[in-house]
Amino acid sequence: MRVTNRAGLPDAIVRAVAADTYSKGKSDFSVTELLSPPWQTHLRRKHWDDIEEDASDRIWALFGQLGHLLIERAAADGDNSKTIFSEKRFTIERLGKKISGQIDLCQYDDKGGVGISDFKFVTVFTVKQGEEGRKEWSEQLNLYAHLAREHGIDVDWLEIVGVFRDWRKSEVGKEPWYPQRNVQAIPIKLWSKEKTEAFLLERVKLHTEEPFD
Questions:
Q1: pLDDT tens digits for 130-152?
Q2: Following DSSP, what letter does each residue of 76-88 receive, concatenated?
Q3: Pairing mode, if any, of strands 83-94 and 2-4?
């Protein structure tokens, strides 16, 4: 993929955007790819070298990468007894395909329960959408829990930590759904092992059985 600079951003920003080091590891599909429409994943792979994206459209993705670096730094604090691991990629195999996902943070709560937290830079509108509007978040985190489970880590709870990029203190109290703070933990319902396994197999089949060419 080629990064363009039609918006005329400073060169340092453009280079930072272009230097994205993301890798799904030695896997056939990442969790994110599995959740995308199969045709979209196929076309993106097939035409990867021809895709152009302007640096100005990747700014919040860049902020997300910076946020993950901060999480990793905080988790490395020697006094942090709650952290189990951070920014760790797990891989499992289903139907002959390797599936991987990188978990932002796995930690203990105050009662000793194990949870997975995923950090996202989002708009406040995602709070108003409710559970149905966050369907993909639920799918993503439950697949992460499944990956952790397959590696001997039983997960008790899930959450999205939303960092609201358009939050305004002046808007607090005007609508009942509006976040009280610019950062909010949003609980995600944990699926059963059976439900998650069935969903995973369904997604792998969709991405491998349909004729795309």
A1: 776 689 999 999 999 999 999 99
A2: T-TT--SEEEEEE
A3: unpaired
